[in-house]
Amino acid sequence: MNVRRMAAIATTVIAALAVSENNCLAGAGVSAAARAVTEVPCGKPLSAVRPPAGGVVALKRGCTYDGSLAITADNVTVTARGSGPAPVVELRQDGAAINVSGSGVTIADVSLRGVAPRTWICDGRRTPAGHVDGIDLKAGATDNTITNVSASGFYAGVYVPPGAARNVIENSTFTNNKELDTNSPARSSGAFGVLIWGDDNTVRDNTITGSQACSLAYGFDGAAVEIFGGSNNLIAGNAASSDNTFTELGSPKGSAATSNTYLGNTVSDGAVSRGSTFLVTRGSADPDGPVHDTVVTGNTVNLTQPGDQGVVSYAWEPGDATLLTLTNNYLNLGSNQVLYTDGGFADGGGNTYLGSCDPAIACTPTTPPLIR
């Protein structure tokens, strides 16, 4: 058989297989067009990319892209192609490097970099000012996965707003997210690794460092993981250092964040720590409260530098119910305060408290502590 005849037969067979595959996919609700791969060349603005449902956006390794990528369809994958360092998506204006309003989206193997569009004068120095995010999951975005991503220089590496649920942020690195979009003697806001306002999301197995910014109100501000109004979120297995706070919880007026869980996280001072706190939560006597039924289990905390704090649970009022339960945690604050509570605190047992407590009786172990 001649070569041309063989090639024609091979083409026919491949086409038949493709038709068969497309029919199977169509039967599963996925069209042939939905599997389109968009290979984005270096230098192409991401604002020009519009992936279809089920499509793949392949960013070239070693390239830097600007603009903002909007993912409005479902089941889209954003990933890297080729060899070399991860592709970089850089944003220099307020907004998000990647906006996700679809569901079932996966973002993997990319590096995100924020450049503050403005500066503050704080403590005599110019510090980053702006509201540039790495990834924004829009209201209604559900069941999305962010994995093996790095994000630095942002107001928030990832923002999960109200109405965004069941999203997973995992195996990623959030470094030196230091932007504030509010900075006055009255208050400041920003410098978040991950900021959650939504429900039922998971943040696991990430490394989060340097979430701290110069604040005119507080000296420094920021959090590795901030929860405001979100409920039933799981924060597990993360390693954090050099953050102003590992986590702070609050609620917008008229609502109450509830039943958030912190499991097996490791929190420590870092080379550039400027006074770190493990956890801050509050009751309804605070305008940003209440936060109910936060469960903190199996975490290891070593914050022993001057100015560090452990757990702060305050502004409880009768009728607030339980604000916080600690179980099987190792909390080493050296000579610092390991726990402050004015009510609504429950010791679930198995905790090791190293440091001072206010009131002292709150740190009386109910069961023998774990040995670590």
Structural classification: mainly beta
- Stretches where pLDDT is under 50 for at least 5 consecutive residues are 1-34
Please give the share of residues in helix: under 10%
Mean pLDDT: 90
Report the principal-axis shape.
globular
Main sheet attributes: strand count, strand direction, barrel closure: 20 strands, parallel
Portion in strands? over 45%
Q: Supply the number of helical segments.
A: 1
Oligomer: single chain
- Give the CA-CA distance, first to last residue: 73 Å
- What's the total number of strands? 40
Radius of gyration of CA atoms, rounded to a whole number: 24 Å
Features:
372 residues, mainly beta, twelve-stranded parallel β-sheet, 1 helix, 7% helix, disordered N terminus
